[in-house]
Description:
Blueprint: E1 7-11, H1 16-28, E2 34-37, H2 55-62, H3 68-86, E3 91-96, E4 100-101, H4 105-111, E5 119-121, E6 127-136, E7 142-146, E8 155-159, H5 160-169, E9 188-192, E10 196-197, H6 209-217, H7 229-235, E11 238-240
Parallel strand pairs: 1-2, 1-3, 5-9
Antiparallel strand pairs: 3-8, 4-10, 5-8, 6-7, 6-11, 7-9
Helix pairs in contact: 3-5
Amino acid sequence: MPGTYPIFVISLEDAAERRQDLMDQLQAQGLTAQMFPAIDARQGVPAALEHLVDRPQTRKRMRRDMSAGEYGCALSHRTLYEKIVTEGLPGAIILEDDAIPHPSFGDFVRAGDAEGKDMVVFDYIRVSVSRWREQTVTAGVKLHQLFARSTRTTGYAVSQNAARKLLAETTPISHAADWPCDLYTVGAWATYPKLINHPDEDEVPSTISADRATLTQKSSKHPMRHFRAEHWRKKIAKRVG
């Protein structure tokens, strides 16, 4: 049946006000969500989860260190993938607690338009998509097949199959939550317009953005980037944002 994916809101225990604001917006659109406790790594990655972190591989893949907050974010999303797989859920819609739903989000969810795909990304910063793979679904929303990894994990839907692939890619964690692998290989699509938006950083500061910005300044571009299939797919893609 369409519209059967549960909606999880990843949120720190003490972010009640921000979380409630999102819950109220979802309720106004006729949707019910459940809070999923985020991994709190503000004081460092919890010792019990350190075995799920590969710091040397992180430096190799990202050309920099990741902050504790970034690890916490990635671990939170990984824990949800694990829940989907181990509990045999058909899939899930995953939102972060600062998500801002588009007015068409509720109609899209109820129609189950994400449930025919392995993955649908609702929020992103300009992405590369196929020029030839496009579908129009509920309320005039379009789906575009992704040609490369996007940015932001503010809101997306994953099938159990996609969750299994992402779980494998995040065991152990060696990349930021967005994204541990090439989303083309996961079978991801992006909505246009974006059905989930992210608040301006000046209005709602991220708990990890400042540390990430500092570490990113120290990074360098990967010297082999032109040899990745993902890089070349971008050359024949179009951009949406």
